[in-house]
Each structure stands twice: as C-alpha cells, then as structure tokens.
Amino acid sequence: MTKLETKLLLALESIVGYDTYRTEYDGRMYEICHSCGDQDGNHSDSCEYVQAKALIAEAKAIRFAAAGWVQWGGGKCPVAKGVRVDVLHRNGDESVSKPAGHKVFRNWGHTNNPLDIVAYRLAGDQQ
Ligand SMILES: [Zn+2]
Fold it and tell me: At a CB cut-off of 8 Å and minimum separation 6, what does 57 contact?
C-alpha cells in the first residue's frame, strides 16, 4: 500500500466514525445518519457510510493478506473451537485474540452482515 493510499484510508476511517448526528424530537433523542437518514445505528444498503466501510474493509483485507492473514470467503469455521484468532469483519472492525467459538465470531458463513468475517489469522500469542 502506498503512502497516499494509507493516508486516504486513515482519512476515510476518521470520516466514517462520524456517520450520525444527534437530535431531539418530541422529548426523545435520535441518532440520524447523515447519508441515508436512518436512525439509531441502522443504515440502508445504499448508504455512503456503509459503502465507505466496505471499501475500508476491502483495503484492509488486501493489506492484511500481505501480512499473512488468510482472506475468508465464507464457510464453516476453519479452526477448532477455542483456538484464538484475530478476525477482520466486513465493516472494517477487527476483533483480536478471541476463541473461535466466541459470540462475535459466529459469522464465518457469510450472510452479507457487517460482522461477516472477511480475513483471519491465528492470534499472536499462539504463532
Ligand atoms: Zn446511513
């Protein structure tokens, strides 16, 4: 990844962290998406923030592959239950050193969910 690509990725990661604004209506606080207008953490499929997060995850998957991560296309969990792994989710978030049967690691089979696992590696303390 070039320096420019790294800078663009960092800028995009910073921007997608501010996908909502808070507003009060009729005595209740709402979190509204700047792009799609959905509320309280929900987004439409065409939401620009969702698309940006998918691009971040795609860029990370390429970078991670170069660093020895295994790109994951979906399927049955590839490691024994309890083996600690680091994973990259479709939304660009990482989960670090959790046992394979952990609740955040249920999306080995892809369902087009933000938590689908798109890359993984054995956790550092086992390599
Ligand atoms: Zn949205």
Answer: 88, 89, 90, 91, 92, 118
- Strand partners for 22: 31
Q: Distance between CA 32 and CA 39 in Å, rounded?
A: 5
For ligand 1, the distance from its centroid to the CA atom of residue 52, given in whole angstroms, is 10
Residues 22-80 pLDDT 10s: 999 999 999 999 999 999 889 998 999 999 988 888 888 788 888 888 989 999 889 98
- 């969702």: which residue's tokens? 50
- How many angstroms is it from 31 CA to the middle of ligand 1? 10
Q: What is the DSSP letter of 26?
A: T
3-state SS, residue 36: coil
Q: Which among 90, 83, 82 is positioned nearest to 107, based on CA atoms?
A: 90
pTM over 0.85: no
- C-alpha dist (Å) from residue 14 to 6, 19, 43, 98, 122: 12, 10, 18, 25, 28
Collect residues with CB below 5 Å from ion ligand 1.
Answer: 33, 35-36, 43, 47, 49
